[in-house]
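FW: tagging you since you asked about this chain on Friday. Here's the raw sequence from the shared folder, copied in full. Didn't touch anything.
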Amino acid sequence: MSKDLINYHPCEPFRAYNRLEGRPREEELDDSLAAKINDPLWMLARQYQFGELKGEDAGSAIFAKVAINTIRMTSYKGGKTKKEPYSDDIPLETRVERIFPKFDLKQSARYGRKFLQLLDEEGAKAQLSLGYSEGMYKDAFIAKFPFEIPEVDPNPEKDKPEKSIPSARMLSLQQATSFLRSLSGRALNGANLWAFLEGEDSVSSSLVLAANQNPTKDKFVLIKHKSLLQNASKRWIEFLRKELNLPMTENESSWFQERLEYSFEAELDEGDDSKTTLTAEEYFHGHLDWYSFDIKELSDSGDGPKNITTVPADPTIKKREVLTGIPTEANFAGMPNSRWWEMEDGSIDLGNLKASDTDIAKILVTQYALHYSNDWLCIPYDVPTGSFAEVEGILVTDTFGQNLLVESAHKNGDNWNEWNMYSLVYDQEEFSPPRFDKRLLLPPSAAKTLESEPLEEIKLIRDEMANMVWAIESRIPNGLGGGLDGYEAARNLEHELKRLVEESQPESEIALPEVNLNPEVNRATTYKAQLRYQLGNSVSENWIPFVPVHQNGSNREIHFQRASMPRITELFDPHAIRPRTQLLREGIDEEDDQKTPFYINEEEVPRAGVKVIGTYQRTRWYNGKIVSWYGRRKRTGRGEGSSGLRFDAVLDND
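HL: got it, structure written out here
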């Protein structure tokens, strides 16, 4: 056999890996789980290799004393409203996001029944001499605030489509119309009652009869029952405000239409003639946390907030507290144990984390979990919600009796290169050096909320071919507390208008066409052109156009103004197609008359587009109270789109 054949290896040599572990040869696993080591010298060598035998001249922390300062919010200012004292009776998200909703038919019926119930309760508590009986004014209230079935005149005046189009929109919602017919003449319309009272119980006195006056449709309550009516109206208004967390007025909202965002401010009284203002000018993502805030200003002329050195008179606003306790090791699921040969918790597979060289946050968390997690200690402290908290310092006593003062890693607060987390930056000029506040903000926000299906959903996209922005109503309210597909609603309205057109046309006798037997004449009359001219096409009625216009006082900056597509039908003269969602109907009354224009800033509709949804939300506050409200949220869209809108087109004459 040649030497070459001896050295020839047809495949790579087999390599195996064996772990050094106890291998059981018995049925029981007691000896295996004991993990006995028969070679202590090997164990000592491994500990030496990992640096376990190296002395660090450090002891374990056995005692700690912590000084903590907390300052709570003192005032709140939402949007264009006035500043008001802050209260934590509801989450801050509710106070910011709540918008006055449009009552649907189910809500209107339920709230109307609630009013009659409260009126009967007030009458039951009244003296017998007043002569009030249960249900005494039920029919009169139903006649004053009824559920009316919309009617469309089959032969309307062509110059007044606003009288019939809102009714046709309602009739196109078939389920809501059926529900409305079942309520007509049987229930009190709570939405109309709320619009009548306008949040003031004193308005109900206009329903009271004067002395020696006969009851009418507008006045039917006896003067001796005036106090009962006002008390019931007051309780009913308070019930609605508590049920839906309604703002005091419909205009009291933190929502800015031009920016499609919420904007609000919160103020903290530092107690040394200075105030810190926290501002959130671009809140739209639905969950309020510390990163939603910036520090707008500090009225004090110093470089930063002053530390509290004395315990103030009002401990609920600001306080300084000193804690003493035994620090414990910080731990989490999957954390490596600090002791050798101890069973690890396998609930988290930290070794399976996949992070690229750009995933800095994931790399830092992984490094902390695998290398430095055993070096962290924790001391629990309950921070009140809505507070700015600051740790002045920690005095640690170790096992050798030494006292060590642990200060903040970013104690100066003016160097961006220092280690820093959860800090708020100052809102200042663009090229100014960054400044931040080293205190920790814990906003009074809800931990978890339940969200309904969207009642409204609007997608704003850029249409470069048409040189405009479209607001697509992909979901509209269905009148029963839910949402309806916007395209389906547009088709239903189109079918309803076609039905009205057919009903308005008079019946006529069928007339046969006259036939000319001359072949030359027939040849000329049957000729069809190959092309046809089209002035313009149309788009679905749930596409609302926004056209670019110059801002006031500027010939360069633009914003988008709400426009309208024309509706052309045989029933009316051409008129504007109005949106159907509450968001886009801002400035449009019930008869589709535009009272005020509606603008959206250009930067709010990027190339990716945006999506705005309106939902009811529900949460449980920390005092056990159930809180519900109606609010909006903005998300990123899915890119540009095209409506297919064209003018002056030449088409095949099919």
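FW: The longest helix spans residues 105-125.
HL: agreed, and DSSP finds 13 helices and 27 strands in the chain.
FW: great, closing this out.
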